[in-house]
Amino acid sequence: MSLPDLPLIEEGGKFQFSIDRGGTFTDVYAVIPTSPPTPLVTKLLSEDPANYKDAPTEGIRRILSKYDTPSSNIPYTRSICINSSKITSLRMGTTVATNALLERKGAPVLNLITSGFRDLLEIGNQSRPDIFDLSINKLVQPMIKIVSRGQTTTASAYLTPSITTYLTSFLEGFDEDLKKNANISFMRSDGGLTSVEKFQGHQAILSGPAGGVVGYAKTSYRKKSSEEEKDIMPCIGFDMGGTSTDVSRYDGELPIVFESTTAGVTIQTPQLDINTVAAGGGSRLFLRGGDEKSTSMLVVGPESAGSEPGPISYRKKGGLLAVTDANVVLGRVIPSRFPNIFGPNEDQPLDVVGSTSAFQKLISERSPAQLNGMNTPEELAYGFLKVANEAMCRPIRNLTQMKGFDITTHALSCFGGAGPQHACAIAKSLGMNKVLVHRYGGILSAYGLSLSDAVAEVTEPAREVFGLEAKGVEVEGSKEKREERFKTLIEKCKEDLKKQGYDSENVEIHKYLNLRYEGTDTAIFTGSKSSSTFSCTDFYADYASSFSDHYQREFGFDLNRDIIVDDYRVRCVVKGPGLSEIKDVEDLGEPPKECSCGTNKSYFEDGWHEVNVWDMDLLKPGHSIVGPAIIVQSISTVVIEIGCVAHVTSDGDVEILVSRSKSSAEKDKEEKEAEEAKEDPVMLSIFGHRFMGIAESMGKTLARTSVSVNIKERLDFSCALFDPEGGLVANAPHIPVHLGAMQSAVSFQIKYWADKGGMKEGDVFVSNHPQLAGGSHLPDITVITPVFQNDQIVFFVASRGHHSDIGGIAPGSMPPQSTTLIEEGAQIVACKLVIDGVFQEKTITELLEAPGKLPNNFGTRNLRDNLSDLRAQVAANTMGIRLVRELIAEYDLKTVMGYMRYIQKTAEISVRTMLKQVAGKMGQTLTAVDYMDDGSPIKLQVKIDGQTGDATFDFTGTGPQVLGNHNAPPAVTYSAVIYSLRCMVGSDIPLNQGCLAPITFIIPKGTLLNPSADAAVVGGNVLTSQRLCDVVLKAFQACAASQGCMNNLTFGNEEFGYYETIAGGHGAGPTWSGKSGVHTHMTNTRITDPEILERRYPVMLHAFEIRKGSGGKGLRPGGDGLTRVIEPLTPLTMSILSERRSRAPYGLNGGGYGQSGINLIERGEGEERRIINVGGKKTTNLNVGDKLIIHSPGGGGWGAEGEGGEGVEGVQEKRGGGFIPVGNGSLATFTETQFGV
Q1: What contacts 971, CB < 8 A, 6 or more positions away?
Q2: Residues whose CB falls within 8 Å of the CB of residue 319, separated by 6 or more in sequence, listed in order
Q3: CB of 273 within 8 A of CB of 1236?
Q4: Strand, helix or coil at 518?
Q5: May I have one GO cellular component term (predicted)?
Q6: Do the Cβ atoms of 285 and 1183 come closer than 8 Å?
Q7: What residues contact 748, with CB distance under 8 A and at least 6 apart?
Q8: Could you count the other beta carbons within 10 Å of the beta carbon of residue 678?
Q9: What is the pLDDT of residue 330?
């Protein structure tokens, strides 16, 4: 962009630069040494190799050339190093480390680790990043302690050379005196500045976006003259850039987390809680699905056009249609006011004609029915814009709800080049009434650097129990010990800042303790409320109460347990420039015409408007602008939507008051749509986001409010939304084996209670019976709540959680040798858990303890956790009901119900299309058979109607029910089929009842897959379900066999029980090799970190590594299984429930078999040492010194080596070009570990 003319600089004046190098643009905030100093902003492309090597260097060169050369005659040409004599300060945030991590272009590293754990960082916690991706690109997943610490250490070694190389290259662009002339500092991920010498890879992951958080925190969270401190609204930071959007929250303290995931790698270091989602101005636009009679879905992202080739409007070869193009077509970005930096010579404006033509081309490729009347480029572009806005609303809702905050009490502080174009619409959708846009909003990350603090911090691990002190009991020596520890850490921090050139007397000190409740892994860094002393009572008042308040708010309950301190932390800060309070100004009303740069034709919800375009540089404090209107800043555009009013503050920023009331045009449109209930592709996509958002929010509520390790930490649960008949509407992809099963449970309760007076508002229902009530196995308890509107049931919400114990003959309720259902625990066919809003504790307690009345059987061994988790499931359902009612209030019941059906139909069409393609390629009859270890066959014949896409899945020929526990109820078969179909469709379709609508099931009674009501089934859910997936995928020739097992291990004694599932090898496919050491198909739960395992339980983990060579050979080799070796430190009872111990995972198309698994006990030493084969299903005792060795199966290979092959993969819908930005932050970490996406 061109630089403005300014007065000559003062003699001897020095320049200050703050630079944010983003993925698409590099933003520069400079202070020019005129009299008085003049702030200046500019922007240039981050990548433009045809014109310059490094964007930050180029930005500095342009400014010095423009403003210094006329007075100093110093040349600043690209061919020579920049003379640094006129630079006094240089602050920078960079994406170098992030890009090196995303692109895997760091330095080679050597990992030194204890023998037996060489593959630990690759295994991570075993979960896979996308549960529906058969060609798993498994990135290491987040875990605490040794895994995350090891990943952080490795990441630092991997990335620091990239940082060093970049810094060396950057400094080479200047003369050798730069370090002497200027104070050079770089932004760390925690929002603090550090010196060049101390800037390391693992601290630089969020270097770029951190400046934006500091920027909005210091500019938005400020008191007005007329208000009190308590009236300051907390802010949601909304930084919408070219490739992604960063979301964060600020309420007076920077939001620091100490473990976060970026590009699949866990970094355990202080960093701002910035949650990145793959949605930005460069997000690509697609029309997907639909046929001659049904609408397509508008899909935004996650692929991004990036800066190369960029959106079509950027005028680069190969440009891709993106959100920016929609704004250009709609007149929300004005080319004449946008920098002329496009085209081969960087001198052309945005290409409106090219973008318009691209939308017209999309229209011409679809039938009128598929677009439902959207027949102009602007209508289609506006539709995509609404979908994009909803995609960005979803993570903001999730971020606040996950932390227990009300989004409507926040202001939306919006920045980034694209953010102000979307902010009003997003605030409207979220129910927020205020939007803040800083005058430097387009480059707020760079401006934030100029306001940032210099920071040094140090953390020291500890292991102290504070339970006695919290109860008022003084512990001898503890006060002095804490004082000394903090004093030592403070001195280290001060010395660090002193070396960076700061005065230690100006240091602000913050002290924290990392606290958690005994028996949990959820630790929270907690600051003192007030006192700097550390007596017993002060600690309780300052730290324990702060911790308790935080825990209560975030998780919805408190625990009466001892408090443990895991770490001491000190953060020393040298404050950056501060800003005064916002002064009240006189209301000047609408600006005079002299402040206008004319009008512009812009598109809003009711069509085209000729709107005023106001020049921000000409507006004065007190001016008010009523929407629709546009305000143009030097480097961004602010769109004022209909019903919104913008006010210019005393600082020259923009505060927009947002009205949620709808315009008459909006109301007329919605009333017409409600009357006609016609399917609209825009609303179809929006409702897809909203329905899924409800299921996700339920899951976050359940994780927050539960107490058991199984649900809160292993995340073994699922939440879903259902139609009035019990059909699935939206199921957040938590645990795959639950995907299709819960709808059977809901349908059963509807039928059961219909004969008993029906369901009433205020009642909540509970069940777990696999054969009679649509359950999966007894530990999975389902809680179901009807949603009433006008005295009618309009939806159901349900949550299913795996309870760690519900009674039965073995601890953990997973007995390997059960033969009847009653041996596996409490059975609940139908029960009211809540009646008229009252939790029925006595009734449910009697049911859970009922097995204990039988000989050699037991009731639940952990009633307290059962009751707490059931209450959490009720709370999750209550959240779902609230969000459903909000959705109905926002649109109306008829519209919501209509789109519930349309969403189901969309999924149905996608599956039918895939099945018709399969029939055309592979024939209309597909068959497959596989055998359980006991020889029981699972036989499948699929008959497809090539015209309609209907299919019959016929399991006739499957073996009879067994006198064992690997019988599987029909709901498990439904789950396996819906999961397999969703995998084979290949595109991101809604997951609901529509996926099964084309499918007819034939599952003969009395077989392994449809056993009698009293048959044992605990293994069917965790073993047979895996083999079902193998059989379905084999019939479609989609994938070789995976490990076919979950390797369920339990051990314990009278005092405790522990349960885990162990990963194995994934089967290979036509275009991918199987992944090693990953959970496959029907499970995706996490495994306990080795350090936590050994700290919490009396065992030693000797090995956890990949079983090299256990995958099948082939053109595409299968994934390897794992080896896990555990030694008890006290006598324990062990149970193993596993499969594929005798029948190896098969390959396809000539691929080799994977190796079978084997379970061994090593007992004795020397000549007495012996290895005992335990078998696949066994309960036995382990003595001190014994070693349990589990070798999990590998996956089958695909294709003979040297040959090719193709199965159903050839007909899957594939994503287009571009790249997919990777999320990070606490929300991404939670989502990735809970949902696997």
Answers
A1: 740, 741, 744, 745, 770, 774, 775, 776
A2: 305, 309, 310, 311, 312, 313, 354
A3: no
A4: coil
A5: cytosol
A6: no
A7: 767, 772, 773, 774, 830
A8: 14
A9: 94
Instruction: Evaluate whether 1233 touches 733 at the Cβ level (below 8 Å).
Output: no
Element (H, E) at 448: helix 444-451
Would you say how long the chain is, in residues? 1237
**Of the ranges 49-53, 1114-1118, 1133-1137, which is most confident?**
1114-1118
Is the N-terminal amide bond of 70 cis, ω within 30° of 0?
Answer: no
CB 1123, CB 1103: distance < 8 Å: yes
Pairing of strands 563-574, 453-465: antiparallel
pLDDT of residue 667: 55
Please list the residues that pair with 48 across neighbouring strands.
Answer: none
DSSP 1163-1220: E-SGGG-EEEE--SEEEEEE-TT-EEEEE---PPPBS-TT-----GGGGS----SSB-
Q: How far apart are CA 725 and CA 796, in angstroms?
A: 9
Q: Which two tokens stand for residue 1215?
A: 């994503």
Convert 754-770 to b/e letters by CB count within 10 Å (16 or more is b): eeeeebeeebbbbbbbb
Residue 272 to residue 279: CA distance in whole angstroms = 20
DSSP-H helix ranges across 518-621: 536-539, 545-555
Q: How far apart are CA 105 and CA 1232, in angstroms?
A: 23
pLDDT tens digits, one per residue of 613-671: 999 889 999 999 998 999 988 777 899 999 899 999 988 899 999 986 555 555 555 55
Cα(911)–Cα(906) distance, integer angstroms = 9
The structure tokens listed for 432 are 């927020």
For CA atoms 609, 612, 617, 623, give the dihedral sign.
negative
Strand order in the sheet with 1121-1128: 1099-1107, 1121-1128, 1187-1191, 1158-1163, 1170-1173
Q: How far apart are CA 535 and CA 465, in angstroms?
A: 15
Closest by CA to 213, choosing from 164, 278, 257, is 257
What is each CA distance from 739 to 132, 550, 728, 993, in whole angstroms? 12, 33, 9, 10
**Closest Cα partner for 167 from 137, 193, 192, 199?**
199
User: Do 155 and 147 meet the contact criterion of CB atoms below 8 Å apart?
Assistant: no
Q: Which of 85, 52, 44 is nearest to 68 (CA)?
A: 85
pLDDT in tens, 122-174: 666 666 656 566 564 333 322 346 666 676 777 777 778 878 888 888 888 99
The rounded distance, in Å, linking the Cα atoms of 333 and 462 is 54
Query: Which residues share a beta bridge with 283?
Result: 304
- Quote the CA–CA distance of 431 and 695 in Å, as a whole number: 20
Quote the CA–CA distance of 330 and 340 in Å, as a whole number: 19
For CA atoms 106, 112, 113, 116, the dihedral sign is: positive
**DSSP code of 296?**
P
Q: What is the pLDDT of residues 343-396, one digit of tens each?
A: 877 788 889 999 999 999 988 888 777 787 788 999 999 999 988 888 888 778
Where b means 16+ CB within 10 Å and e means fewer, 501-539 reads: ebeeeebeeebbbbbbbeebbebbbbbbeeeeebebebb
Tokens describing residue 1105: 């590594």
Q: Token digits for 5? A: 């003319």
Going by DSSP bridges, is the β-strand pair 1170-1173/271-272 parallel, antiparallel, or unpaired?
unpaired
32 beta partners: 38
Helices and strands (H and E) in the chain: how many? 28, 48
Q: State the alpha helices, DSSP H only, in 657-716.
A: 664-676, 681-705
Q: What CA–CA distance (Å, rounded) separates 1082 from 971?
A: 13
N-term to C-term CA, the chain: 39
